[in-house]
Amino acid sequence: MATPGLKQGIQKIHKMYGSKLAHEFWKASVDAIDLIDEIVNEHSIDCDWERNGHASLATKPSHAPRLKEYGSWLEKEFGHSQKYIPKNQIRDEIGSNAYYGALTDEISGGLHPTKYVFGLAAAVANLGAQLCENTDVTKIEKNDSNNFKLITSKGDITAKKVIIATNGYTDRLVSKLKPLIFPVGSYIVVTERLTNELQNIISPKRRMYYDSKWFLNYFRLTPDGRMLWGGRNDLSTDLDLDDSAKRLSKELYTVFPDLRDISITHTWTGNLGITFDLMPHIGETNGIYYAFGYGGHGLSIATYLGTEIGLMLAGKKDRSPFMEISHQTMFFYRNRPWFIPFAARYFRFLDWIS
C-alpha cells in the first residue's frame, strides 16, 4: 500500500518541527506516490500497480469525529482533500458493519511488492548496475586511497560511496546506526480467492484500508481476488506464524463475517524499521550514508528517500528535510530492544481506553 503521510502523525510533526518542515514532509509523502507511478510507467514494471485510493476506518464511535476533524485540518493546512464518510454511508466503501466512519483519499495506491522489487532490480541492471545477491557484508573499512573496502561472504568490494539501506534489518555493521532504529514484526494472512460477488460486497471500490487502532490492521483485496489482512497485537519479530495467523484470521472474520467459510492459504512476516521519533531519516556517519525508519510506509517513502539520497550522492541535490531532524534513542539500547514488551503493553492499554 502507498498512502500519504508518515508513521508519525502529520499533526504531531507540525507541532514538533513547525509549519515549514511539516509542509515539506507532507509534500514528500504525496510526491512519493507519484514517484512510484512514474517509475512503474517509465520502466514498464508489471507489478499490479493501481491507484484506487484508501479508506482510514474508525474502529470506535469516539474515533469517527477525530477522523472528520483530521480531514478538515488537512484541507485547511495543506490544501489536501479527503472525504469523510459517516457510518450510515460506509457500506458504499466497505462491506462491513464494524466501523463508525471513514476518511477516504483518492491518491493512494497498491501493488505487488515482490514484483515491484524485481522490476526495480531489472531496471537498474539494464542501466548497468551490478547486483550481488545473497552476499553478506561483514565489515566496512577505509583503504589507503580513502575508498571503502567492503568485506563480504563472497569476497571484497571496493567502493567510493556506500549507502546502508537495511531498515528493519539493520545490525551492528555500522555501530552508530543500531541504537537509532529497532525492528517491529508485522504479520499477514491471505485467503483463498473470493467469488466476484463477494469481492464486490467486501470492497466495492478496491480501496486500501487501515483502521484507527494503535495496533492497527491494514487490508485490501489482491488483484487476483484474495483478501490480504495484515497487522499485529504484539511488536515481536519472532511470533509463531501459526499463532499469528490464528490471531489475524480471528480479527478478519470478526470484521467480515461473510468470510468465515473462506480458508487462509498463505501467511508470512517481515520487519518494519522504527525510529524513536517515528520519522524516516537520511544521514551520514564517517562517510557512509544511510536511509531508514519508514515505519510501515516503506513502499513509497523508501522509493522516495532512495531517489533523494541517490541525487545527493550524485551532486544533484544538496539537502533533504529528512536530514534536518535529529535522532533519538533509548537508554541502554545497543543490541536487544528490551523496551518492546513494555511498548506492546502500553499500546494495548491505549487501544483499550481510546
From TrEMBL:
<dbReference type="GO" id="GO:0005737">
    <property type="term" value="C:cytoplasm"/>
</dbReference>
<dbReference type="Pfam" id="PF01266">
    <property type="entry name" value="DAO"/>
</dbReference>
<protein>
    <recommendedName>
        <fullName>FAD dependent oxidoreductase domain-containing protein</fullName>
    </recommendedName>
</protein>
<dbReference type="InterPro" id="IPR036188">
    <property type="entry name" value="FAD/NAD-bd_sf"/>
</dbReference>
<dbReference type="InterPro" id="IPR006076">
    <property type="entry name" value="FAD-dep_OxRdtase"/>
</dbReference>
<feature type="domain" description="FAD dependent oxidoreductase">
    <location>
        <begin position="20"/>
        <end position="307"/>
    </location>
</feature>
